[in-house]
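Human: Cast an eye over this sequence-structure pair and say how the chain folds.
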Amino acid sequence: MKEVPGTRRTKLNERAHGSKVPFESACPKCEQLRAQPGYDRNSLVRLLSNGYPVEAYCSMCDEFWSISAKERAVLVTAAIAGGGTFVC
């Protein structure tokens, strides 16, 4: 199989920038835990350290919300530790 130009570079960049940090957050409308695909580690650290909101989404309610301060603290820990999926 022939390598597509730029493909290898993309894979190297993904490793360099870190993997996604998936999490779950409760929808404020239906109150159900919803899996979130997560942010890549570097983007997440940038959002958290600069005080920007981190949003979650419920596909059943078609609702977006900013995660709470407690959820942000859990995400900071996960981003630093490089952990896997977790519940906020």
